[in-house]
What we know:
By secondary structure, this protein is an all-alpha fold. It has 14 helices and no strands. It has a single domain (22-349), classed as ABC transporter involved in vitamin B12 uptake, BtuC (Orthogonal Bundle), CATH 1.10.3470.
Amino acid sequence: MTDAAATGAPRRRAVPEWAEGPLSALFALAVSVLGGAVIIAVVGENPLTVYATLLRGAFGTPERVAGSLLQATPIITCGVAACIALRAGLFNIGVEGQLYVGAFAAAWVGFAFELPPVIHALVGLIAGMVAGALWIAVPAIMRARYRANEVVSTILMNYVAVLLTSYLTIEIFKRPGGWSETDPIAATAHLLRLIDGSRVNIGLLIGLAAALGLHLFLGRTGAGYSVSAMGSNPKFAEYGGVRVRRNIVLVLLASGAVGGLAGAVETLGVHHRFMEGFAPGFGFDGVIAALLANGHPLGVVLFALFFGALRAGSLLMEVETSASREIITVIQAFIILCVSAQFLFRRHGGVSGERRWRF
């Protein structure tokens, strides 16, 4: 008789190696690349040629490397936002909406106020964070007080955020004679550029600092330990003195604030105004990166760089081959399917009472 049977403890079924640890991410990437290769072959192109062109488009010249870093910057910050929630056993899939409201708030500060340099940019970043936190406040309270599913509420808030910012841009703050965009922000609100001739800015360093800060917070502070304990087993954490309901609200507010920060960086550092549809899925890419990294902030950086390279390289791929840049969407779809399969195996391989997301 096994120990589990003798003690009456629930038995844990074996989980495949590909669904655990770093192997899970490598498996997802391998399947996505192979799946993309099949689609490329179906449209009549050589997968090796297309992927070689994709790599050249992402890393072929210093300018293209800068383009990859530019694309990866918002994904890093959005991934950190998703990680904050995941490590507490929560799922903030509304990062895209928080990015939009954060970007609009930063733009409003940028064109509506006159402030000294540095201070203006700092106030814009803070405004973006406040907007992102406020945007997730209702789902956070509903989750803590009424146990409402934050996956549903946050994803619904995405649509409201996109439509609301579009309305404000087109009907109230639209630049006269321009496209669907606001007035440009003041030069005093611009973020410092890191690379001459490129739009890569200190937002990249902000994202890296956020990832490192979260890593240290989770691993070296008592508050970080309480967050991880809450993610592992909320009932056990509450029994140990952790105020779970309060932490749910605080964690989701922090996650929303970092999502809003990603949008503020895009406005102040890249576009210098708010434009309708300025972020083609950065928030969702950040969530996928966080899942692939298994909730580890430093791992998010690596996968965000991967997604940034895919986005940047797809431009040259579309020019030099007949493959559409939508092949990147296909690759991401395969990744989502693999991640979903991994969660299914983890759920059936775990025991009752474990956290919803395992890291």
